[in-house]
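Q: A reviewer asked whether we had any structural model of the full assembly, not just the individual parts. We don't, so I'm hoping you can provide one. Inputs are below.
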Amino acid sequence: MARRITVVVSQGQSANPDKRKLEEDLVAALLFEQGIEVAVIPHLYDLAPGSTGMLCLQGIPGDMVVLSWLFPRAAHWTLDRSGIRGRFGQTLLVSDEEEDEDEPEEAAETAADDKQRVGPRNLPNRTMYHVDLRSRNQAAPFVDEIKRIASESTVQTVSLGSWPLSSTSGGSTVSSPLVINVLGGSPANGNGNGTGSTAAPSSDVPPAVENPLITPGGPIRIEETPARRWYPVIDYSRCTNCMECIDFCLFGVYGVDGQETILVEQPDNCRKGCPACSRVCPENAIIFPQHKTPAIAGSPVENAGGLKIDLSQLFGAPSAIEIAAQERDGELVAVGREAVGLTVGIPKRQEGKQAEPKDDLDSLMDQLDSLEL
Amino acid sequence: MSEELVFMMGQFAARVPTDRRYSKNHMWAKPSARETSSERQTNGSELRFGFSAYAVRLLQDVYFLDWTVDAGTVLRERQEIGSIESSKAESSLYAPIAGRLTEFNQSLLSDPSTINVDLYGDGWLFAIEGDGESLLYPEEYLVHLEAAWKIAERTIKGQMNE
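A: Here is a predicted structure for the entire assembly that you could use as a starting point for your response.
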């Protein structure tokens, strides 16, 4: 039997009509595509564990295309934290600025060093494709890319002989099987795994009749308005389990699992707006998907640190570590605790830095300091 | 019943009610409703802030409001506290005065259009417990607007010509 692919539309937080229109245009365009199911959920970063939207996502079997107003890495690892896992699928749709980059994701995956990464764990045999809705203004390029992914996904897993699906139905029952599957497995029976993808297409009455989310033949819509959240997301393809984040954060956000691997244990302990741990991470593995700085929000481009000189340091900007310490102090004071400055949990790579001989930049900095700008 | 002044932004009349005071970054301030109840014993008074008609005219339809601090945070004056997206603009938002941010208008997070519907009432943004002495009186705000509007016009034209 041909596999279906599910397209998840993660709605933006903004009421911007252009953004809402793009989301709805996509839903409308995909609704009658064979082999494609559509689910519309609130902004996926805000979904709390156990919420209807999260259970819906956890119940989706097979390959998934996730359309969100987030960088693909941010969306991928946000879902990974909630156990919605899969291989990171390559999408050909990237924003114009990224187009110059030569397969940035690939580069990230195969970082040319001998560092031991945490890497993927417990990966089910499926692929998650993440598409940033900010990369195009019109629905058409997204639809084309989704069709391409759908064919790629089908070819990969199904022998061509059994592929054609179009002969089995006239298109009238396009979306009902998954509606039954997901909703039947949603809040009622916990893990949301449902009964598999074999529910009879003829059954228009789903088991969870009281569930108001069902529009027969339409997309799944999760109509909840979750509170805004703020927490870090770890990219385990970059993380080396160095533990600098757990040392640095004084709000108990981080913990370790049974295998002594770092994890975001108490996401909601995080201080809203504070991205400090992301700045101290030596691998740029910590993502705050909603932060204004693309590098912190999970942009696919590798840290430009090695490629370009950031002159803002020359003009008096504090270092990333100093900014991080300031941000942390601000949050500590805000909750009535004492500022600790650079005395606690400062990355080990800063140790011994003073001993190094001063280079030209150091001298330049000293001169700037003496000017007392 | 409350009187109001008017500032003309081209053809548009921006209302400036005289029952409140104003910050230089175009927010109005008014003692919170709950300030009158005796349950709150604090050093500063609690002020409720919202966008002035001048600010809303520049923004026009508000689509999205996000705060990057939590209620309870002690703010410096002009500390960045959030951002806004509207049909005409995107901007960061900054604290109008120093003090402790006590409350955000939660209903705006799901429906920020209230800012356009009732900017001097239900469209309030947040409350700060602090010293509002530096805030401008309506007449002073009008003088401030004269200068601000000239700069705003230049900024808007400059950005449109880019």
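A: Points you may want to mention in the reply: The longest strand of chain B covers residues 45-51. Chain B has four helices and eleven strands.
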